[in-house]
Amino acid sequence: MAEECRARECIALLRGLRAVRQFRPEPVPDAVVRDILMVARWSGSANNRQPWEIVVVRDRQTLQALASAEGYAGHLAGAALGMVLVMNGERPEMETFDEGRLSERIMLAAAAYGVGSCIGWFSGAGREQVKGILGIPGERLVRTAISLGYPDEEAQRARPRPAQARKPLAQIVSYERYGQRTASSP
To answer: CA separation (Å) from 21 to 18, 41, 67?
Structure first.
């Protein structure tokens, strides 16, 4: 019974993860950031290559500069901190998968502490701009940033909910073959 309760708590955390783009001004404690980084450190990667480094940014001016880079990371401007994922760039396709795993783990670890997060993406010239802002070597690949901070609940309440609900399982799951929407009995 205790295992089932723990599993349900974990599932609730996983299902409850939402993008947070507006944050309260208070900082995230160093101990919480360290725990999030430890989860990142232990994230899985192809062949255990761990092809990443993480730049933690708390400086308000730097966060605003990153937010203005080409892409979709404007939410960094109001975050308590940002984490920019720096990939080795040796195997970009493989690293894309690892980068996604790493991002989600960081966001889930933050959520465990009640810290909100949102993934952002740098594109085009924004990637080189970010490298310049943070002093990242040219051969590295920079695409992803995660904003973190305590959610501004008032701003979230004022924001309209999207009209589209989640698709039902029957619409997204196939069994044994694509398009077979019901499980066959043994």
So the answer is: 10, 25, 12
